């Protein structure tokens, strides 16, 4: 009953996380009726991001370069490697201004129920990265949720088996909490109190 | 700190209704990390919809043609014109399969606080449409919210002043509804609008 281009837009909007048919319809009407400029901008931003964004070959976060600026910065401490789940977690740690090492962004977490195992998470890339000869300590900063803890546990066993020092953020972070929603003071404290595992 | 193309995508996603900075970031990561195909499809759907969708010259709903299929259908009763706020409302009335007249879609409602007055809502277009010489009765089917009621009231005065018959959807207890679970305002209205049987 709807024009096919409108139908297709509503259907396409459903690829957004937690957007169902009603929300998608509301979004489509809003874009077409109230914010055509925003809609055009969004379409262009999507196309551009898909075109230019890749994963940094060293830290795996989104980057427009082969090696992101952070990894290429010689003033960062290359002996420390902090493993986080998502770029948002990296951003939170950077905001504490209490860490000057490098990062590895998993872009997810182990989640067997969703079919994300060590292979899907490409833990082999992390292991290769951690064995560049410069990294002395790997700091696990995955979330303190069940999945984040399981991820940390798995990564820890893989790395300690290969002789690397591995630490975990201290439990200053509330159990069950997520880094993205934790205050920076708590995260800073957890960095200072990290414990060897 | 983020690549500019990622920043721009997150910013652009905020044009979606009720999407704040955190949701926009989550959406961007989801699209780039988990659903690049969906992202590409969304970008194309936006561009295509913006290109081909216009408003039907008769009923004002979204259409790829100058006159939409419904308005062009000679089997619809051209003496009845049903006024709704949004295409979703039109779809609900069509689903009842109990109306065979035509529609006019306001694409909004009067909302003085948001700066939407009779001029912004282009009520002049509705008035012109209602005076095509064929329309005998205008049925107001705006929502029964404060804004929808105000819109109906304004449209009614404009049209009756020009000699057209104007009606409004009846208010009352929902079909299948139990008095015990109906709000008192609705029951009071159902009493006022009681019909002789």
TrEMBL record, chains A, B:
Native organism: Thauera terpenica 58Eu
Zn finger residue spans: C4-type: 56-71
Record bears the keyword Zinc: yes
PANTHER family associated with the record: RECOMBINATION PROTEIN RECR
Gene giving rise to this polypeptide: recR
This protein's record includes keyword DNA damage: yes
Keywords attached to this entry: DNA damage, DNA recombination, DNA repair, Metal-binding, Zinc, Zinc-finger
Gene Ontology terms for molecular function: DNA binding; zinc ion binding
Gene3D superfamilies linked: 3.40.1360.10, RecR Domain 1
Family membership: Belongs to the RecR family.
Identification of the protein by name: Recombination protein RecR
């Amino acid at each position: 009953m709807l024009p096919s281009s409108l139908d297709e837009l509503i259907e396409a909007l459903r690829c957004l996380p937690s957007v169902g048919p009603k929300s998608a319809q509301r979004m489509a009407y809003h874009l077409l009726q109230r914010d055509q400029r925003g809609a055009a901008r969004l379409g262009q931003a999507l196309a551009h991001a898909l075109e230019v964004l890749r994963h940094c070959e060293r830290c795996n976060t989104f980057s427009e370069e082969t090696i992101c600026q952070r990894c290429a910065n010689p003033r960062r401490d290359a002996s420390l490697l902090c493993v986080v789940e998502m770029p948002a977690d990296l951003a939170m740690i950077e905001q504490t201004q209490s860490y000057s090492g490098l990062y590895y962004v998993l872009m997810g977490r182990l989640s067997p129920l969703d079919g994300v195992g060590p292979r899907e998470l490409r833990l082999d890339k992390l292991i290769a990265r951690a064995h560049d000869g410069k990294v002395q300590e790997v700091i696990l900063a995955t979330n303190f949720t069940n999945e984040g803890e399981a991820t940390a546990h798995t990564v820890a066993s893989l790395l300690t088996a290969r002789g690397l020092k591995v630490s975990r953020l201290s439990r200053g972070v509330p159990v069950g909490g997520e880094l993205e929603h934790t205050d920076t003071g708590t995260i800073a404290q957890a960095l200072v109190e990290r414990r060897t595992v």
